[in-house]
Each structure stands twice: as C-alpha cells, then as structure tokens.
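Entry 14. Ran structure prediction on the chain below.
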Amino acid sequence: MQQLTNLKQIETAVNQYGEIVLSKNNNNFVVMSMEEYNKNILREEILKALKKSEQEIENGEGIESDEAFKKLRQKYRYEV
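Output, structure tokens:
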C-alpha cells in the first residue's frame, strides 16, 4: 500500500501496478494493486469466519472436526 499526494504519483502507480484500487484517507490517497486488495479482502473474510466459528464454539454450537470432514468428503465425493 502506498500513500499518494498528487496526480502524478497516481499516474505512476497505475503505470507500475496496472489495475489498482484507489481510496482517499483524510487528505491523502491510498493506492494498492488489485492483487494486494484481493488478498486483504480474503484475509478479512477468513478472520470474520474464524471469529464466527469461535463464537459458535463458545455457544456450544458446531460439530466435531471428524464429523465436519466426513460431511465435506460426502459432499464433494472425496475418498481418503
């Protein structure tokens, strides 16, 4: 992620990274490559899913891992 302060820097970033995501943070612009942006989104989704899973465990919900993997193997017809 790179902080930008003027249009010339934005143009340089586009030339360097190709497809980018541009966002404004206070008086600065922040630019990142689509690859970096997608990695950040995926990371956030994984963390959100882990937090949800932890909450379910605390609430006594969920199933044992052996049962979860058994269901996944059945769903995707995967034999070990």
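The radius of gyration is 21 Å. Will compare against last week's run tomorrow.
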